[in-house]
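Q: Sequence in, structure out?
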Amino acid sequence: MANGFDKWEEKHMKWLKYTLETTTEATDLIIDMLGELGIYGVEVIDKVPLTEAEKKQMYVDILPESLPDDGKAELVFYISDGAPDEDSSAFYNSGTGIENVATFYSDELIEKIREGLEEVSNFADIGSGAIYISETDNVDWADKWKDYFHTFKIGKNIVITPTWEEPENISESDIVIKIDPGVAFGTGTHETTRLCVEELQKYVREGSEILDVGCGSAILTIAALKLGAKYAYAMDIDPVAVKSAKENLLINDITDDIAKLEVGNLLEDKDLCEELYKKQYDIVVANILAPVLVPLTPVIVPALKEGGYYVCSGIVKELADTVIEAITSSGLELMSNTVDGDWVCLVARK
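A: Exactly. Output:
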């Protein structure tokens, strides 16, 4: 049971945001130094361009334009403030540089950081080494996005509703899908998810069997099953996504006998592919990104029944032709090419 202080802390806890100005050359050394002081989770803000390996790992289609690297960096970290008095709160809100203040609640910590910076300066240029501070409230950022996710409808009768809302004006023909995506992709609000759901409404039949590759929150799996599919096999390379998917299946009263979830990567796991090919599916849906869909398409074609449909999205318009080439070269017939904003959804038939 939470005591009085716990309740006060939950409501009034303040966090001090520390910003340390330095150089990209010294960044790693300073982060190591901060770690020795028990400071972890440091955010690095710089203009260092992504490496090719990082781009590949992120599966980024189009990177935002970035400014030239100027060698400067900011390191940002947060430390609990406890319960400061009014005077210190006024200072914390000012964003004043620490070095200009004679007395400070975190004097000891600042002194240790400065000693560490002096040591690092023997090995690398640390730049100005200036430290700035500001105060922020105790906001549960992991749940803050929920303020912007509300019940909405896709197509004629698919109603997507967050678990923390009770949908209103629901008709008998509406199919309600309850979703709590957590950190997994798939609330239904993104164009690619909506496009996939709309295609599932066209092609799912009573008794259809579905393969959902890159399932995220499992919103497409749930939609297919509620539209009449009798079985779905969903997978994602991210264990956190699969955990979220499992919770969403339970929320929607979908049992293990009609939905299988698995953590796996079909591009790297040959044993998983062999297991997958033991069964074929009426519909394969993959809402991922074009750089993944291109090598993935020929891998999943053997899991598609003759006459079955391949629904894929997560494709920016500029890369649609690349995915279409992968589809047709894998022996599939392109059936439709639907565009919504900057995004494309392709449907092909085996």
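The chain has two domains: 14-52+62-92+100-139, 190-349.
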